[in-house]
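Ticket opened by: R.M.
Priority: normal
Category: complex prediction / small molecule

The reporter submitted a protein together with zinc ion and asked that the result be attached to this ticket for the collaborator who will pick it up next week. Submitted input follows.
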Amino acid sequence: MVSVHFYAWVAIPPGSEIDAGVAAAMEPYRMNEDQQESDAEDDTEVWDFWTIGGRYTGALDGFDPLQDPENQETCPRCSGSGVGAAPGEDCPRCRASGRVATSPQRWRRHPGDVQPLHRVVHRDLPATLVTPAGIHQAFTVDGASWTDERGGMRAALDALEPASLIVVVDYHR
Ligand SMILES: [Zn+2]
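Result attached by the on-call engineer:
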């Protein structure tokens, strides 16, 4: 099964504990492991893994997680020397820097990935919005035809308390 990552916003009530709040909001949409293939189009079973931030770290505020030294490690190809196969040649993996980015699942939690709703309403919508009232996809697919559902997603955001917290979530299915 090919794993595909999605950019989601999870809306949780103001004052929520972030990890517990997101976990509770996401739980109803966990994939049933027995039905991963057959229910791939079932919109109530959307994920088999999620993390806060992940590869979408910084999506709300433009922060670049690759520039954070804590999200980098010693280049495994050149052991940090920056030197390529031949003396004087740059390591192609790290481009001579000796450092490479770690995997997004290990990136440091970025505070900007949690923002009050009123600060993000002007942002580009995510692929998926999870609120206490339900789940919304920006687009739905039926065979070869796509339906733009962003109007419904906007309406769902408008229905939330303005002080709701929006959390960037990277999930895959
Ligand atoms: Zn290297």
